[in-house]
Amino acid sequence: MSGIAISYRRSDSSAIAGRIFDRLVLRYGKPAVFMDIEAIPFGIDFRTHIKSVLAQADVLLVVIGTHWAGVGVSSGPARIWEDADPVRDEIEAALERDLPLIPVLVDGAKMPGKADLPASLERLAFLNAPEVRTGPDFNAHMDRLIVAIDRILPANPSYPPIPVLPAPQATSHHQHQAGGSRPGSWLSDLMLYLGVPLVVLLVAHHLIVNSLDLNPEYLRIIAIAVPLLFGFLRSWRSGRGTGSALAVAAALGLIAVAGMTTSEGLNSGQPIMPETRAEWRENIEYAVSIALAFMVGHALAMGLAAVMRWRLRSVKRTEAHGHGP
Question: How far apart are CA 89 and CA 60, in angstroms?
Fold first, then answer.
């Protein structure tokens, strides 16, 4: 019996669905977790096979990312509205037999509302949904999800115990916390990835321009290297989205340049505000280069993480096909 079935859309959440699958396999064993066509025998109609699996499953996890509804053909309605959509088929089959459903929000997604779904899937919009984020929160979020699954699955003494953690914030289409993070985590995020590089840039500016009178090209190098490093570390360690990274990058660029201009003006006795067009252009270039460097670091970390997940999934596919029937 497949105790747990995972429904997801490949174009939406393939990478994190794979991580969720791997974590559940560690807990319940591979025979107890079913995920997509990789587990379907060759030559079998995937629609028939999926329905047969759902007929034996105890719970269906519906992994919902930001593009879960799917892109329609020729800018038409989303794929979830198509009668032959596999994701729709999976959820409809589960609802028809009153199979317990747990929507799982990933990548900062929100629950779809009733108006966003076909009539056959409207019940999904009213289910509370836990969030599973990448980064350091992943294991804690998965532990909470496993506690919820354990309450549904038949008791099995072979499963190792999972500590009961505080219940996560339930999320539906009526409520959603931006980013799903605690206020303290955002404060520490700002202090580490905005405050620290800001201090480094201001200290470097003071030493190079005011104290040592070095070649200003050194400052340009530091103004690119430091935000690039912290942009990479922020994305790699916290897994936060691009929107918040843009906000941090813009704030870092503006505050750093304002601080450098103030420091130089106070040290030289000259007006703090730029007086000529060339000075304004130079300040804007510094701010933009700092912000861009931060975003480049963010993009590099996201790209590297995606490549690592893809390689891991490729290895697992090769192993699965090599040991298949």
Answer: 13
Task: Tell me how far apart the alpha carbons of residues 135 and 149 are, in angstroms, rounded to a whole number.
Answer: 22
Cα gap 63→59, rounded to integer Å: 13
To which residue do tokens 């580490």 refer?
192
* Contact (Cβ atoms closer than 8 angstroms) between residue 264 and residue 210: yes
The CATH classification of domain 4-179, taken from the options 1.25.10, 3.40.50, 3.30.450, 3.90.1570:
3.40.50
Q: What is the DSSP letter of 174?
A: T
Report pLDDT digits (tens) over 21-69: 999 999 888 888 888 655 667 777 777 777 787 888 899 999 999 999 9
pLDDT of 172-231, one tens digit each?
Answer: 444 443 344 444 467 777 888 999 999 999 999 999 988 898 888 999 999 999 999 999
What are the structural domain ranges in the chain? 4-179, 183-307
Q: Which helix (H) or strand (E) holds 61?
A: strand 59-64
Q: Is 233 exposed, middle or buried, given 0-12, 13-18 or 19+ CB atoms closer than 10 A?
A: middle
- In sequence order, the 6+-apart residues with CB closer than 8 A to the CB of 240 are 135, 179, 181, 189, 234
List, as one string, the DSSP characters of 95-124. Answer: HHTT--EEEEE-TT--PPPGGGS-GGGGGG
Is 86 in contact with 2 (CB distance < 8 Å)? no
Distance CA 307, CA 300 (A): 11
